[in-house]
């Protein structure tokens, strides 16, 4: 079994313990349809797998995990993150991204293809899988829809799917051509694949720096209207209806956008959606400080939009969360707002932000959105808690209040607006791939 610990330089050292056991004490199990669910149990981990679950386990010479109102669930999953590898490893690489994910409680992460070169061929998909297969986090590449992410012709999606691509998207450069997206939706039906779109019509206010509204006017910054998002959502929903294919829309940020998706679901369109924690916790008013860490796309929206998104989370219209983890180095953020790059890191803060800003969200529902829902959307196996072979767990304290600091960041980049913020809910450890990582 391999255990990882953070050192003061925010890197991870690996220590091998061939016979070490770990005992999780009195952790409330969250596992739907499982006999242990809702009960405080002792869980014994041996060789990176659950070897025993009981009301009380007594064993000598064991590393013990205890905590305040400790909980345990199957490992969490993120569906849209950027690891920048290959090509921009100075911002993030596959190892640092994986460890940032583990630090935030994630044992599975889907990564976007916006690398250099793009993840648009079978060898690039194999590169990601081969370089992460032995790590503590399962990293699943999203294959590009178009060659080189240029939006002009389809990439070899079938070959990438055979190589292990989990879904298809042009990531942070969404497909603009309706005809090309139509072909992609038809193509993936052959293997029951899913297309992911970030809703952004880039022909509308391409130079917009923030949400178009009263605050953009007061700040004198070019705005990006909600229309740029809502037109793409409406268009893509019609394409999904026409093709009867599976579409996942991520980063939904407007009230009308989420209403369109809710209506499409009622009509039987095969659409799912995810929202980011930062679209649930900030409004465009926060940009009065010109904090470049808050420059994102889709942009932060108004209070009514945030309220609508929260309601959509509570009523089940939103299927899962997506961190949109987008590392940027110091030079990309420490300059005038106009020239700063989009994006913030989000893996380490996801759980704490959601618990802080939607405290009324029932914990079992939140965990289902982090575990079962994303795996169902992308046709991934759902581990059962009480199977002997289980080796995919997240251990956490859902009610612990703590202050997020730069020392809590495992990512290579530090572009987070949450540094210094008080969060609720803290990850204690993840167990996956015969490895344990303590947070």
Describe this structure in words.
With 439 residues, this protein is an alpha/beta fold. It folds into two domains: 2-72 and 391-438, Urease, subunit C, domain 1; 76-377, TIM Barrel (Alpha-Beta Barrel). The chain is 27% helix and 24% strand. It contains 13 helices and 20 strands. It has helices spanning 94-103, 122-132, 157-163, 178-188, 214-219, 227-243, 255-266, 277-281, 303-314, 330-333, 350-357, 363-370, 372-377; strands spanning 2-6, 12-16, 21-30, 40-46, 49-54, 63-65, 71-74, 76-81, 106-111, 138-143, 167-168, 194-197, 210-211, 223-224, 246-250, 271-275, 320-321, 392-403, 422-432, 435-438. Strands 1, 2, 3, 4, 5, 6, 7, 18, 19 and 20 form a ten-stranded mixed sheet that branches. It has a four-stranded parallel sheet with strand order 8-9-10-11. A four-stranded parallel sheet has the order 12-15-16-17. The radius of gyration is 21 Å and the shape is globular. Mean pLDDT is 93; it is low at 6-19.
């Amino acid at each position: 079994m391999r255990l990882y610990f953070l050192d003061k330089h925010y890197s991870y050292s690996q220590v091998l313990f061939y016979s070490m056991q770990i005992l999780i004490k009195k952790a409330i199990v969250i596992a739907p349809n499982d006999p242990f669910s809702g009960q405080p149990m002792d869980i014994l981990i041996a060789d990176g797998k659950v070897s025993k679950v009981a009301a009380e386990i007594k064993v000598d010479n064991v590393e013990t995990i205890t905590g305040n109102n400790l909980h345990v669930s199957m490992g969490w999953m993120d569906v849209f993150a950027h690891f920048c590898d290959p090509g921009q490893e100075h911002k993030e690489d596959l190892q640092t991204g994986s460890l940032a994910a583990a630090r935030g409680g994630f044992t599975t992460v889907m990564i976007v293809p916006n690398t250099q070169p793009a993840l648009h061929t079978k060898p690039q998909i194999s590169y990601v899988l081969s370089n992460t297969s032995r790590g503590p986090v399962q990293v699943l590449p999203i294959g590009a829809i178009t060659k080189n992410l240029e939006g002009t012709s389809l990439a070899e999606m079938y070959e990438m799917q055979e190589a292990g691509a989990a879904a298809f998207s042009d990531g942070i450069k969404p497909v603009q051509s309706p005809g090309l997206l139509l072909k992609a939706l038809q193509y993936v039906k052959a293997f029951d694949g899913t297309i992911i779109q970030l809703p952004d019509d880039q022909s509308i206010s391409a130079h917009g720096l923030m949400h178009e509204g009263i605050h953009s006017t007061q700040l004198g910054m070019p705005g990006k209207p909600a229309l740029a998002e809502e037109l793409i959502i409406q268009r893509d929903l019609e394409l999904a209806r026409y093709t009867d294919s599976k579409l996942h829309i991520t980063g939904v940020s407007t009230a009308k956008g989420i209403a369109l998706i809710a209506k499409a679901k009622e009509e039987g369109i095969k659409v799912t959606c995810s929202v980011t924690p930062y679209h649930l916790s900030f409004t465009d008013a926060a940009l009065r400080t010109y904090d470049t860490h808050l420059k994102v796309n889709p942009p932060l929206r108004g209070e009514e939009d945030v309220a609508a998104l929260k309601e959509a989370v509570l009523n089940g219209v939103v299927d899962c969360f997506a961190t949109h983890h987008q590392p940027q180095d110091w030079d990309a953020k420490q300059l005038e707002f106009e020239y700063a790059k989009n994006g913030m890191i989000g893996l380490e803060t996801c759980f704490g932000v959601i618990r802080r800003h939607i405290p009324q969200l029932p914990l079992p529902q939140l965990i289902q959105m982090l575990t079962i829902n994303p795996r169902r959307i992308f046709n991934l196996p759902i581990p059962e808690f009480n199977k002997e072979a289980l080796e995919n767990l997240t251990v956490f304290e859902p009610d612990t209040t703590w202050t997020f600091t730069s020392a809590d960041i495992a990512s290579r980049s530090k572009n987070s607006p949450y540094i210094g913020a008080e969060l609720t809910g803290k990850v204690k450890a993840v167990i996956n791939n015969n490895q344990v990582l303590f947070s």
